[in-house]
Amino acid sequence: MDAIVLLKDDHKTVEKLFKEFEKAGERAHKHKRDIADQVIRELTVHTWIEEKIFYPAAREAVPDTTDHVLESVEEHHVVLWMLAELAGLDPADERFDAKMTVLMENVRHHVEEEEQEWFPEVRKAMGRNRLTELGEQMEAARATAPNDPLQVPSAGA
Ligand SMILES: [Fe+2]
Ligand SMILES: [Fe+2]
């Protein structure tokens, strides 16, 4: 599969979970825990395959977008720490919904920048064959993703 199509599919999956979270009732603690756990899993795998494969390849193909890659990594950093906090937070805690709300704002902003400003340039520079090759590598790399968001490279620095 084309690397950019694969990443956009992941974004859609996460957005669906966000909408479900927003629809969940104030006291639907068990449901919201379940959604948050799925979000943690999806975004850990997604940031992992981006950082391991897509970001380095895109940076090499379009050196002009290096600043964008570096900012994206910092955005991942914040998101991954929030995911780690959410993993250990009781959904009945008054900070849980607020933390999810800020996480969703951060991720939506990040996704919009990736899709609107950056991916089109990468697509133009890489071409179809290279994107397909990267897509296959990312599909395979899903299996190597850690469970702990803090094990994704950008969480560390
Ligand atoms: Fe990203
Ligand atoms: Fe992404």
From TrEMBL:
Pfam families in the record: Hemerythrin
UniProt xrefs under InterPro entries: Hemerythrin-like (IPR012312)
Superkingdom of the organism of origin: Bacteria
Coiled-coil segments: none
UniProt domain Hemerythrin-like: residue ranges: 3-121
Record region (Disordered): 137-157
Cited PANTHER family: HHE DOMAIN PROTEIN (AFU_ORTHOLOGUE AFUA_4G00730)
Name of the protein in its database record: Hemerythrin HHE cation binding domain-containing protein
Species of the source: Kitasatospora cineracea
Native organism taxonomy: Bacteria, Bacillati, Actinomycetota, Actinomycetes, Kitasatosporales
